[in-house]
Every structure is written in structure tokens, then in C-alpha cells.
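Holo prediction — guanosine-5',3'-tetraphosphate.
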Amino acid sequence: MDVPGEAGRRRTFAVISHPDAGKSTLTEALAVHARVISEAGAVHGKAGRRGVTSDWMEMERARGISITSAALQFAYGDTVINLLDTPGHADFSEDTYRVLSAVDSAVMLLDAAKGLEPQTLKLFDVCRYRGIPVITFINKWDRPGRDALALCDELTDRIGLTAMPVTWPIGQAGQLRGALDLAEGNVIRYQSAAGGGGAPDLRLDATQAEAEFGDDWLRAREEADLLLSAGGEFDLARFTAATATPVLFGAAVRNFGVRRLLDLLVDIAPGPAPRLDTGHHPRALDAPFSAFVFKVQTGMDPAHRDQIAFARVCSGEFERGMVVTNASTRRPFATKYAQQVFGQQRSTVDTAYPGDVVGLVNATALRVGDTLYAGKPPVRFPGLPSFAPAHFAVARPADLGRAKQFRKGVEQLGAEGVVQVLRSDRRGDAAPVLAAVGPMQFEVAAHRMEHEFTSPIRLEQLPYRAARRLVDPVQRGLVDSGARSEVLTRLDGTDLALFAEEMDLRLLIRRFPELELETLVAEGG
Ligand code: G4P
């Protein structure tokens, strides 16, 4: 099989957005365009959340959110699209960030009335950190919203990305009529196709557009020209270098702009590239099979506590049943049960190529960050970064008689990356501190401690909000001397300096200018 050819046909991306910007709607619209599903809502929309059964899903249903996430794969023309799902709930978890380690590009979805929102910014920070190219889709143009130029300025002013309009709306937000297609040099006329996705875009030339849209068309041209002459001309190199972002306007719920987005992904989004191993050597796409685990989900099926490890293929061809090696244990792993999972849908995966995601069922030995490979010599990809936790709680067993189960459970959850586990001399091993990016991680941890490890826990929140990496362990005493700060050590050996507020951090640095602290990934927001 022509592995580089197969890899070149793939586009693996995630949609990053603030809850309610329309990610589920856009996902469904994209899939409808590619005719994967016949009806919007079947993949993972609110309607699709009905009738779900697993433990997680009960929790999700109770809170109207989605924790489970994986990848949706569909063909669009000759291209294979892998759309990785980032959970859309209000509380962030590290899973959301880890998904971004498995994509080659991202679509940043903004609500036209709101622009950049806090969680869009946090996710964008991770994209920036990883150098992921971002396409911006400004959604809900069918509703009153902000001015198109102001939205583009916001991208430059707040996140330093030059906006390169690919389409430009004709008419203000709320008066969806059509859009200039600046790449094609014509006009897309809006046709109502809610839910259907089948209606082809109607294209108008300049004369037809002027006749149809009059002054709105002229104004759109002027605005777009303004942006283009101010450095907004499309430039593939700047997109790939993640210094500029192509911008499209649309309305996912009405299927407007969705096809243009798909076409843009096909045309400009990067396909899988050779991934660097821990020795900084690129792993050629046609080298023997290799993949890394970016997410582990437990308890997706209530009948048995199955665990699915989601791995992104980096090189070679995956064939279900092949025996691969887990680089961290050097032990063989048989890939008999390989699935694609998206929302409630599961299907067996027989073959996969770089860029694809394979869900390995009952992979209890696999951990987030693990590398799998076939053949020799061994290969190992760098582990995934741990993200800056912002929530901290001391965990204690509710039943002291179950101390052993408690220790085992906490260790397991830490190893899986459900929460980060920290220890302090002050509290000792009987009272580890759990750290999370989003508080929902605590709920998941408490749920699993009770039901899976039969050791219910009590959590006592700690008043810390900011964390930094303490570079030199000798300086621990400086941080511990503050009344509102302390140093805790993570299972991986990293010393984390915790502060009640950013202000406490600044005060301490002023007092001890020699203090060496490093920002962790995805800080702030
Ligand atoms: P999320 O996954 O990002 O959280 O957002 P979701 O797709 O669930 O969309 C949030 C709300 O925004 C939904 O309305 C959805 O219909 C609406 N929406 C998405 N895209 C557009 C758009 O282009 N235009 C308009 N006008 N609305 C859009 P809801 O009332 O919360 O739910 P529903 O009952 O309509 O499903």
C-alpha cells in the first residue's frame, strides 16, 4: 500500500470553540455534507444524547454535557477527513487539550455575536504552543452579531493572528445573503438548506452579484479590500507557520459556508507529517507502523468496564490483529479489537494510515502518551505535556479500612491522567493532592474511586488557583515560606509551586527575584 499517498489524502483536525458557539452543529453539518449521516443530530447533537447508557453518559446526561470524545472519519471526495472531537462542556479537562496533540490543524469556531471567548482562548493557547495552523470560522452569521471587520481586528489584537479573509459576508450579521469568495473571485449566494446539506453553493459573477445585492455587495468589496491591502492577502506559508488565519463566515445551522470550509481544509490544511521521536528524529510516514495514545477512556460500556485507548497513527499501515510493542513497557500488545468511536457510534477498524485514530478496546496496559510500534528498531514519541492545573483538592479515603484500595485507585487515576496526583511532606502519602485543569475531573475521579476501586473519597478543596514549575528544588523553601503558597511534587517528579492568586506569585517574585519559576502549558485564561 502507498502509505505516503494514503497519508497525503488525510486531514486530521479538531474544532476548538467555547460552549454554545455551535461545534456540535458544525460537526453534524460537515458530516452531512460528506453524506456520512443522513440527518443532522445523528452523530452527537443534543438529540443524539438521548437514550445513552454508560456511567459517564449518565453523568453527562444529568449535566447536559459530553465527556466522551473520539474521532469521526468520513470521506469527502478523495480526501479522508478525521475530525477529532474535543468535549464541549463548560468545565475543561486535560482530555480536551490532549486531543490537540493528535491533530494537524484546527478550526477555531467563533460565535459572530461574541468573538473570542475564554475557552476559545485557552484552546488557542495550546494550538499556539504546538504550532498548529488554525482556520477561523465565524458562525451564526444568520443572527445579529458584531461587525465583520471588528471580529477580524480582534484576532490580531488579542491573539496576534493576521486575519486572511477567504470569504467575506455580504450584509451585516443577521442578514445572511451571501459571501464574496475571495479565493475563487466570485460570490456564493446563500440558499436555505437547513439540515439537508445537499444544496450546492450557487455561484454568481460580479455583474450578477451587483444586480442581486446592490450596495451590500459594494460595501463587502470595500471592506474585504481594506483587509487585503492591510496584509490580509492569503498566504499559505503564514497559515502553515500559524502566524495568520484564513477566515470564513457562515451559519452552521443553515449549512452556509460549511462546504467552503471543507474545501478549504482539503486545499490548504496540512496532512500528516513525520512525527519527531524522543531523539528528535522524524519518523518517516512509510516507516513500519507507529502510533501514540492521546486519550484513554474507561467505562464507556456499562456492561463491562471496558477501557478504550485512542491512538493516532504516525507511520505505516495499521492492520487489525497485528501485534505491536508498547514502547514504555516493551511488551507486545495484540490489536484484535480496534474501533472507531464517535458519540454513540462504534465500528470496527480493519486498516488505518497516518492521521487516522484507532480506538483499542480493553487496552488496560496502555496509558496516555504511550507509543506503539511494529517491527524494529524501537521508536518512542515524546510524552504529552501536562497542563497547568487550576483546581486542587486533598483526597482522603472516606473509609479508613480501605486505605489499600484508595492508594491503588489514586495511583491508577494519576497514571491514566484522569487527574494529576501531587504529594507533599506536610500531608504525607495518606492525603495526596489531586490537581485538575477543570473541576469536572474531580467528579470523574470520585466516581471511579467509589465504583471501580471501591474506596469512596472525601475531597477538600485547596485555595490555590495558579501553578508554576519550580525549576530548582533548592528554592522550595522560598515558596513554602509564603502563607499563600506551597510546593507539591507531581508523580512524574515535577515540583509545582502553587499560589492562591497570581498576585501572591508576583509578590513572592518581588521578594525573591532569584526565584526561578516556569509557566506550564495552557496557563491562564
Ligand atoms: P456547542 O456544541 O458548541 O456547545 O454548540 P451547539 O452546536 O450545541 O449549538 C449551540 C446553539 O447554537 C444551538 O441552539 C444551535 O442550534 C445554535 N447554533 C449553532 N449554529 C448556529 C448558527 O449558525 N446560527 C444560529 N442562529 N444558531 C446556531 P440551542 O437553542 O442551544 O439548541 P437547539 O435546541 O437549537 O439544538
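READOUT: The CA atoms of residues 142 and 175 lie 6 Å apart.
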